[in-house]
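Build the 3D complex.
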Amino acid sequence: MAFWNTLERFGERTALITETGEHITYSALLARADEIAGAAGSRCLAFLMCRNCADAAAGYVGFLRRGIVPVLLAENLDTSMLEGLLESYRPAYFYLPNEKAPDLPGVTAWRGESYTLLHLPYEQDYKLPEELALLLTTSGSTGSPKLVRQSGRNIEANTRSIAEYLGILSEDRAITTLPMQYTYGLSILQSHLSVGAAVILTDKTLMDKEFWALLKEQKATTFGGVPYIYEMLKKLRFDRMNLPSLRYLTQAGGKLPKELAEEFIQTCKRKNMKFIVMYGQTEATARMAYLPWEHAESHAASIGIAIPGGEFWLADPEGAPILEPETTGELVYRGPNVTLGYAENRFDLCKPDENHGELRTGDMAKRDAKGFYYIVGRKKRFLKLFGSRVNLDEVEGLLNRAGIPCACAGVDDRLDVYITDGSLLGQAERFIKEHTAINPNGFQLHVIEEIPRNDSGKVLYSALGARP
Amino acid sequence: MTNIEKYNEAFIESFGVTEEQLPDLAYQEIPEWDSVGHMQLIAALEDAFDIMFDTDDIIDFSSYEKGKEFMAKYEVEL
Amino acid sequence: MRVLQFATPLLASNMYLLAEKGRGIIIDPYGGFIPQITGECSGIDYILLTHEHYDHISGANALRERYGCPVVCSEACGRRIRNSTHNFSRYYEAYAAIQTGEPLPAGLPPVAECFTYADEVFSGQRTLFWQGHELVLTETPGHSPGSICILADETRLFSGDTLLPGDVTVTRFPGGSGRQYKEIALPYLWELPDETLVYPGHYKAFPLWEHKIKMEE
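Done.
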């Protein structure tokens, strides 16, 4: 039974705690949530601009309960990107902070202390399949970010699994350190609500005194952090802070540098806190692996083992499973939290499950004799153009769909785009400049005879060669 | 093959010696058992018994007889 | 094209940097020379591996991540670098201790296990056209299954451990083959012009004719 439908049983327990110290019970949360979603009517698509506040969380919970599919968006989303998304997806509703509502066309369907539910005037010329429950953005630098399609089953399975391996208790209180539209931040909110625990909501960061005051006053027992947050904690001399309420810390969103990881493992040990390193992707709802805290010290560089309900295997260059330990291969994950696929517009929303429960992570890894996994490198095709990550396959896809057949390769700070039709040179250049966020100094176009392919039709990037 | 036969075989194959030469065999006593030959022997033993030696043990494995003690450590009864 | 040689602390193996017009190619990556590389080149286009032994691949992951370029080697090499036994990293500390003949170090350093992978592999031969130069990569197994030689502009040979100055090539490492060396590697070497400058995997560069004379003796 989906956890968002059984929150009633937590009745008078505290669900949310605001920056001002207000405690909101589960019944109060649900009353608000159902009121907001009720104003939206039946199943449809709704954009949700996120903040770490009670109204936003209530809106999210309400949408899930009502079968309304939210698209979680960052508050500081670029205006033109937002316009692009609105055009592509034509949501029926937009749930956003009161101050932002006047900027958009639409009728107010509900208004609270901080949030407004706007009914947008778009024609609903698309369908939503039954299993679709949530849409999250992936980081993209190409102007039209892809959305990850998550099902109700994905969310339920991953949330339960996370609550289980983290050992979240109903007495726990997580304080937010990450935004809600980010899969890690969202999973912290969801996993705590699913067991009747509480979440302290704040948009303050670790650099603000108010954050620490709130943590101490409300006796937070846990928070999560990406590597950058741990760098900050180190600068703030976390090891010297007196925070007796903290029970465990989690880390995900990238690999923590070795020295920093070792330091925090020791600090947490001294303070009697568990330190749990985790690994995942939006494409797998949130989490795929975790390092059980008792193995943190002995397996410091490992991502750990698959979460309950999931499993890993390693693929050799031919795609066959690697059976022996201590050998590198591509990390593949299987589990009920593998999402349905991507969407780039509203018509993509009704695409079926394209992954069938299996995800090629794009990471190279090895497994030791005890079954612990270690990431060795990334296999996905991307490069950095003056610091920004550019996904080569994405650029290729964009150009191909615009009628410019091409293959993309290159090295950091120089993207090479190979096209076969010389007459499209000008068009290709304009397209890249106008429709992608790629720095004009960062790419070079080349015209070649034909795009080299192997027997199975795959582009042979290595044969494109770096012509002088 | 019995374990002791497998053990002997590893030496015989790696160094091209006969069974009679085995008991006195030690590192650097014969030209074939140099540092490179040593790695051949270790690899052959690991392969034959499906074990993985610790670094210290690789370094301390200095003779045919001493090696037998190490095999016991890896739960191989000769 | 400038060829810069860097001796690494791993059994004095050599890493080479080929530099041209601000771009570079690294042969046998080691992670400890990034400032020097950055001083020469603004970017690296390829990391080439002469063979799979740990002392020639240790920096593959670090440099690949730093420069975003592919690691290229033979198919056999690509298979073997993925496994810490085949690439010898698992034995490295022990081997280095035995090799130097020194008494066992008091606190043994941690095992230098290396797990890496190739982005592009080839079998037989592959030619790279780079910055006006031609690099021909040829499989020359014998020292190891994944050994190759890299010939730049028909005049400079990066031989890995397939050809070292003075020493006879070692084919006794697990995976090595005297037969392959004799049947594949040697004929390849013999065909090259005498003036070819050889940049070996260990020690200093030398002209090929020096070795040919020794071989004839």
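The CA atoms of residues 11 and 27 of chain A lie 5 Å apart.
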